[in-house]
Amino acid sequence: MRRRGGGGSAPRLPLLLLALAVAVAACWAGRADGHGAHPLSRISIHRARVALDASAAVRASPDLLGSRGEDTAWVTVEFKIPRASDGDWIGVFSPSNFNASTCPGSHGSGPGPAICSAPIKYQFANYSSAYNKSGKGALRFQLINQRQDFSLALFTGGLSNPTLVAVSNRIAFANPKAPVYPRLALGKTWNEMTVTWTSGYGTSEAHPFVQWGMKGSSPVHAPADTVTFGRESLCGEPARSVGWRDPGFIHTAFLKNLSPEKEYYYRIGHMLHDGKVIWGKPKSFRAPPYPGQKSLQRVVIFGDMGKDERDGSNEYQNYQPASLNTTDALIRDLDNTDMVFHIGDISYANGYLSQWDQFTQQVEPITSRVPYMLASGNHERDFPNSGSLYNGTDSGGECGVPAEAMYYAPTEKRDNYWYAMDYGMFRFCVADSEHDWREGTEQYRFLDRCLGSVDRARQPWLVFIAHRVLGYSSGFFYGYDGAFAEPMARRSLEGLWRRHRVDVAFYGHVHQYERTCPVYQERCVPDGRGTVHVVVGGGGSHLSNFTAVAPPWSVYREMDYGFGKLTASDARSLQFEYRRSSDGKVYDSFTLHRD
């Protein structure tokens, strides 16, 4: 994959508006209240010293993980140290050899760092009761298959001045290269499903494919394309330095000519040169409806979920405190869900690439059964001089590369993350808010075509999606100057929504829930003459405040975690529900009607 930028720059907003946009982005990232710092960024690993202490020890068990084909395993870590303190912590490193010999490049005349890769996760040693008194403790970590072995290390000195005093034995999964974490997405035609997964097998070692078919029929094999990317494909720190971890190989197969709404079974696999096949777990999905098909169609939409750790690692409860609640709520309702849109700020890896594997594992129960469609957000794309519309650093130097490799989207160009999608009675037009969307741009012309080319007699429900709020939000920092959206957004796009009669527009970015009336030019209008704008950015990351007074167009506001769900069964009505992640219950709803 090519590095972003270098071939010209995107048109820039006027200086004052650009400064405001960048300030707003920083506020949404949570930097004002301290929540925006990635947990792994708090570790000054480049300053770490190595001072191994013969009287300190770390032991991890079991040594062998996944002996029955499991992709996750719980590990018990026992440790001791002569003088315990509150700043002691246990880090999980992968690969297990993380000393200076693995640092890239030359360090010149200086000695260079002793450690140059961040841990995958960590816990403070005093999470183990009585550690401070006895200097002995035990913790449990949940590890996932990430293509490499692991070791666990005991550090003193806290996160800002870490000193390595002991390293555990090496532990590993039985087959670290195994194909894992399948991810479904719709292809570029309505009757195509794509399957993406990750493995440690390059094409020189094994042939990747998907075995698939309808129940009762003979299965067929679909070959898979394979991509990867190197450190040089990324555009900044920490992704190119302490956050770098080899992504392995990402494979995508295209299952074509599906029969509408039929159940299909599939397995990902790799055929080795000796003819042996390494299989993934058997899965199934239901094919999408054809454009215009009248049937029950249910679509979940949310943004800004990120990931969390079920073992309590990384202090993630202060970063994406409700990510697991949302994930688990979606899994519980999966039998009543046909498709999911995660509309930006996906994993919040922020340049720590190990976190992408952990996110794909967290959502695998969802992505392996229903299409999981993405929109691009600031935490995937933004970095200075990389071609993004905004010059923030929220991607941590990723510049969209991991997101675009790990998850398929039916875009025409990989880095232009906008696309159209037909699903039964729906037409979805997905914008890329991190690239220029103003009138006269390539993306504006695409949105005009996408919104204007649908046959509303067959597909009555027209939905616009973007990560940043390009319509209406009374989030505090959007409302601070009275704009209530990204600068210039409505001036550029509201005419399109009105001309093409967009029913609903969805956004993330603001970590809360809000719904407007059908609105045009800041005034509520009758159904069919305006667009309902919905912010569903409460997927998991820390919550954002509202303005003290709700604007007249704001119908419902809630500062809580949740997700939205669209349900259509005919061309006459479209139902929307907002559900809280904590209990899955409906707390707001509306219905649009058509003659």
Automatic annotation (TrEMBL):
PANTHER family: PURPLE ACID PHOSPHATASE (PTHR45778:SF38), PURPLE ACID PHOSPHATASE-RELATED (PTHR45778). Residues 180-286 form the Purple acid phosphatase N-terminal domain. The gene is LOC123399767. This is Purple acid phosphatase. It catalyses: a phosphate monoester + H2O = an alcohol + phosphate. It is an enzyme of class 3 (hydrolase). Its EC number is 3.1.3.2. It comes from Hordeum vulgare subsp. vulgare. Homodimer. It holds the Pfam family Pur_ac_phosph_N. It is found in: Secreted. Residues 1-29 form the signal peptide. The lineage of its organism: Eukaryota, Viridiplantae, Streptophyta, Embryophyta, Tracheophyta. Residues 58-175 form the Purple acid phosphatase Fn3-like domain. Residues 530-589 form the Purple acid phosphatase C-terminal domain. Keywords: Glycoprotein, Hydrolase, Secreted, Signal.
